[in-house]
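Backbones bend. Our protein:
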Amino acid sequence: MFPVLPVDASLQLLLNQEWRAPLLDVILPLFSSRMVLFVILAGLLVWRSALRGKGQAAYFIVLVLAMGVTDLSCNAVKHAVPRLRPQHAVAGTYYRDSGEWRRVPADYVPDRERDTSFPSAHAANSAALALVAMMFWPRLRRGLWALPVAVGWSRLYLGKHYPLDVAAGWALGALIGCLVWLVWRRLAPRLKLAVHPDDLYRPFLLPPPGCR
């Protein structure tokens, strides 16, 4: 079983049990829903299509593929590195079950031999999504970095992961995001697609819609 380092346990205690607020109880669970990532993807697609016209779908397919590869990679690591989730191992941990907040009893004794805490797939997916999206749309960088931070925080707040799980997820997601981006840079010209969505208009020497 993958060990829990003292600093890991201390940070988990701080972020899950001490830094709590009613507003966070409502907001943070939203960022642990995969639906949120797909809503963000859909919102980006609609927004960019409205601004730039057609031809944006290919870039969103790349984003989905990046998340898919990240998810598969996380699952492979999870099976190779078993680690109990805090909600299954740490007394006092807050977690959600059937839409309600609960707390692990003080006398709880872990009864699982394996679990899938390491790494956090949610953190990895959000990091891969944010990194590739930043490469596609550099102007969005100031806001996109907040997505993996919020997702990672939510996983700690919900007792699903330790900080090391989240950090490892971010690192894995960023690595896969970089690899996907490098492959895309080589593949896009062969598919006769612009590397950046905003480059779609440059060959025609025309300003984007709304900027004339």
Notes: Helices lie at 6-18, 22-31, 34-52, 57-80, 121-136, 141-144, 146-157, 163-190. The beta strands are 94-97, 100-103.
